[in-house]
Amino acid sequence: MSGVEDIKSFLEPESIAIIGVPRQVGTGSNVLENLLWYGYKGQLFPVNPRAQEILGIKCYPLVRALPGVVDLAIIQTGSKIVPAVVQDCVDRGIKAIIIQTDGFAELSSEGKGLQEQILSIARSGGARILGPNTFGVINTFRNLATPFAQFNLKKSAVSAISQSGIFSTGYLYEIPLGKVIDLGNACDIGFCEALEYLAQDDDTKIILLHIEGIKNARYFGEVAAKTSREKPIIAIQGGKSQPGAKLMGSHSGSLGGRQEIIEAALHQYGIIQTEDLEEMKDMTRALLALPPMAGNGLAIMTYTMGGAVMFLDACQQYGLTLAQLSDETTRKIKTLLPRLEALANPVDLMPFFQVDSTTANEAYKKLLYGLLSDKSVNALVLISASFSPIMEVLVPIITQVRRDFPQKPMVSWIWGPGQENLGNIGQFNYMSANSAARALNVLRSVNQNKLFRM
Amino acid sequence: MSGVEDIKSFLEPESIAIIGVPRQVGTGSNVLENLLWYGYKGQLFPVNPRAQEILGIKCYPLVRALPGVVDLAIIQTGSKIVPAVVQDCVDRGIKAIIIQTDGFAELSSEGKGLQEQILSIARSGGARILGPNTFGVINTFRNLATPFAQFNLKKSAVSAISQSGIFSTGYLYEIPLGKVIDLGNACDIGFCEALEYLAQDDDTKIILLHIEGIKNARYFGEVAAKTSREKPIIAIQGGKSQPGAKLMGSHSGSLGGRQEIIEAALHQYGIIQTEDLEEMKDMTRALLALPPMAGNGLAIMTYTMGGAVMFLDACQQYGLTLAQLSDETTRKIKTLLPRLEALANPVDLMPFFQVDSTTANEAYKKLLYGLLSDKSVNALVLISASFSPIMEVLVPIITQVRRDFPQKPMVSWIWGPGQENLGNIGQFNYMSANSAARALNVLRSVNQNKLFRM
């Protein structure tokens, strides 16, 4: 498990040297300043020959002048001197090096040469390189984030490995990420080691991948297949189109050539694939908040039959269907309110508006228990616009009843203002029929394929 | 054009009778109270035999007791007495009747009988019915909205015709709608008349349809084909799946049976189709803010090549491609910054970060002018996370330069916090590569098919 140990130095360092850190602070883009702001607990060694100290932290003129043990070096110097700096790090015994500098293989053939030189220096000294052209790592459990931009770090069970920093940093705004490894040009550390680390990491429950190309396809396949049995892996692949692939450039040693083959391989490894970041967000939110779905049967409660129609339309491609309620359930539910005579599945909730709130309260509760107790119901769906009676009456009841059925997922499609008043429902609320349906789909898929245990 | 005149009574009434209006106020669901709150300027005649006045407005015990001319009646009584009330309205000479009451054809065969009875009474008296089971109409240009829920009305060039009230009321939160006609059970007034009205309505520039079934397919086809040449029509169809259609119930006299045929017909009429409300929102926003796209050529400016790759992937299905810049443009742009030597299209914006802001400002401006002046560029795309330098520097420049190229659309995919600081860019900013790409697609489609003039 040397890959895991290697990555630990990047994500869990006790001491960090930042080489080429600028004196300018207050711009939000000084990594030293950011680490202090995050409250990083380890030792920090800024290296800058033109400064005595930055923000009260003693500066060192050269790598070789650094005292004590340095677990991780972050290089921010100009690209031309990076090989010399890497050599200094190797000589100093530093085993983990993040190279944030760009202008390497992604820029020119000259840059490609520099990159090869760096790698060879690192290899000869037994050091590992993350990058170049990477923002580095984020580990919110250690108050550690090396990107230039400042983020609000939040512990999260979702971790990511990306090939484009913007993916992870952008994604941070959408879904909190607990740990991030940005591979950048991936001259040394790639998906295999990073995935191995996240596989054994107890903080990580869900893994997101932004893939442009994968080296060591066989090693990756082994790690991915093993990992996906324990933790869901969702991947978005850049360069699936011919123009996208052309822009991306050829990744030597990547997983394969033809898209169909790559997709089939990822599928075989148990990796959930998506082509859209919004869909990835929907899926991730579902996996975070809800249990797997054990069958295809849906019970729908709706204030709008037009909405239920659209929802069923959206479900068809996933094979999710209306549950055939048992006679007992149907009988139980039909006694709830006088107006419910037309009720089946979907349940029309409009009659609940037309009785006093005490009666409605009791009826909602019995309805939820009835539907969730039915063997044929594998998931519950609530459809509505966000009218206040729903917020005030239904939300607390749902929150209460769900506790008794932890094994059955529930999603809602409640649109409109007041999303902040949805309380616990907000976790599994979606803004369109399609996004709610695909959230259920991922919960169904992970169970069906028995890809992992939650 | 009698259809148009008929609809005018619903959307532009000078006087409204509300029959069965409850005495209870303060709940947000009293239509009389809502109309006062909106500032509706016409006369209001509440009809309620158990009240002298409601909110200071004199009540009438019976329809026949109403004074003067009544343009529109809104019926909110129990379903069983609706036929008698409609008869009263007809006798009183009221020509436009909204029946909000539910419990008709959508509920039971008994309800279906009631509905037929109502229609026959109205027909015999030369009155038109909207509904039953409808929330009625919204005309923000007249401070008029008849749904039970209270909305913040806002004038808008987007109007909608729906068969499910929740579509329009839900949609109001997402995209302001200027005029809405909710057809409900559509026993009388249907898409044809409603569309004819919106076609000639100067306030309406874009028309959204939520379709479950269409009567008088031929008449509808004529109106739609004529209208779509002038104003874009975007439709979402409920019941496209077999389970969805089953739930929707059979709509007698609807446009046809097989989905492919309906879709082909809608396409032939020049109607843009979507299967997703989020997509409809993206399309509508694009049509509101941007000109049509004259060709397939994109110029991309990006702070992330990984993002540009994903964007090109998303564009492929729409046939949108990277513009082949002229040699002159390429030469012009390459002189902007020393680091730009690798530049082509997409333009890597990272080097703009690495120069002082005055230099960057000038270079951004020249870059934008260069790209937009190039004949091969039909649309400009900006990709980034919402880092503050973009907001502060780039947004004002874009706003300024766009004014000189009103005929070329621009979309951005800028994600992350601070969306509220995007200023004018916010209008055409999208949160994922896919949504930005499909926004461009609709701008391209409307131009390509010459379906309408903006």
Compact description:
Chain A contains 16 helices and 20 strands. Chain A is of the alpha/beta class and 454 residues long.
Description:
- The structure is a homodimer of 454-residue chains.
- Helix content of chain A is 39%, strand content 17%.
- Chain A has 454 residues and is α/β, with parallel strands linked by helices.
- Chain A has two domains: 2-275, Rossmann fold; 290-448, Rossmann fold (3-Layer(aba) Sandwich), CATH 3.40.50.
- Chain A has a seven-stranded mixed beta sheet, sandwiched between helices. In chain A, strands 15, 16, 17, 18, 19 and 20 form a six-stranded parallel beta sheet that branches. Chain A has a five-stranded parallel beta sheet with strand order 2-1-5-6-7, with helices on both faces.
- In chain A, helix 3 (82-91) runs parallel beside helix 4 (109-124) and helix 12 packs antiparallel against helix 14 (357-373).
- Chain A starts with a helix and ends in a 6-residue tail after the last helix.
List keywords for this structure.
homodimer; 454 residues; disordered C terminus; 2 domains; Rossmann fold; 6-stranded parallel sheet; alpha/beta
Say which CATH homologous superfamily of the largest domain in chain A is assigned. Answer: NAD(P)-binding Rossmann-like Domain
Q: Which regions of chain A are unreliable across 5 or more consecutive residues at pLDDT < 50?
A: 250-256, 449-454
Secondary structure class of chain A reads: alpha/beta
Which topology of the largest domain in chain A does CATH recognise? Answer: Rossmann fold
Helix content of chain A: 25-40%
- Protein chain pair with the most extensive contact, residues per chain: A-B, 65 and 65 residues
Radius of gyration of chain A: 26 Å
CATH architecture of the largest domain in chain A: 3-Layer(aba) Sandwich
Q: How many strands in all of chain A?
A: 20
**C-alpha termini separation of chain A:** 24 Å
Number of helices of chain A: 16
**Overall structural domain count of chain A:** 2
